Automatic annotation (TrEMBL):
This is Putative membrane protein. It is found in: Membrane. The chain crosses the membrane at residues 23-42, 54-73, 85-110, 117-136, 158-181. It is a multi-pass membrane protein. GO terms for cellular component: membrane.
Length: 192
């Protein structure tokens, strides 16, 4: 009898919370947390790839090449003129643009699902390069279920990916450019 009361109370309270937040809260919260925790990290990282000047957006620095293609840069003594534009220079250019554009799209909620998925892929590639190209040590890499939350790569990046899975799977929420443009699109469709 008493247990039944608590089960009904539990169901009532959390059912109400779920109904009140459905369709808007998770997407918005994940985007705001991404903005608060990760946006500046990616933005600053992207700035290093263009020497801090937006005028270099079409000519990533040698540092950009060294960050993304460390072994190749070492082989050519850090002389980017020895690296073919296709495919390697194009990879660096698109990676640099992605590091600027994708976080902005996630935060403002525009093409959010695709941008969030793009960020997940970006994080996976970044992690691979950090481990294989930059030779991250075992302490930095860490391991899942190791009980060490200070191991940067395994633990942190898994949380980053989970944070981005929310808008990928649930959408950006009602407070987003996607939602605003969707309303405008539906209004326009009604008149045609």
């Amino acid at each position: 009898m008493v247990i039944g009361f608590f089960v009904r109370l539990y169901t009532l309270v959390f059912g109400a919370i779920e109904r009140l937040t459905e369709g808007w809260f998770l997407g918005l919260a994940s985007r705001l947390i991404f903005a608060a925790v990760l946006f500046q990290f990616f933005w600053n990282s992207a700035l290093t790839k263009i020497g801090g000047s937006i005028m270099n957006i079409f000519t990533p620095t040698a540092g950009a090449y060294a960050q993304m293609l460390p072994a190749m840069m070492e082989q050519v003594s850090y002389d980017t003129s020895q690296i073919a534009f296709f495919p390697y220079g194009l990879i660096v250019l698109l990676g640099t643009w992605g590091e600027f554009i994708l976080p902005v799209l996630v935060v403002v909620g525009l093409f959010t699902r695709a941008a969030s998925l793009g960020m997940i892929v970006f994080i996976i590639v970044m992690t691979y390069v950090d481990i294989t190209g930059h030779g991250a040590d075992a302490k930095t890499i860490g391991a899942l279920f190791d009980g060490d939350p200070y191991a940067i790569i395994a633990d942190d990046r898994l949380l980053w990916i989970f944070l981005l899975l929310v808008p990928t799977l649930k959408g950006p929420g009602l407070i987003s450019l996607d939602a605003l443009l969707g309303v405008q699109y539906r209004k326009r469709e009604m008149y045609y």
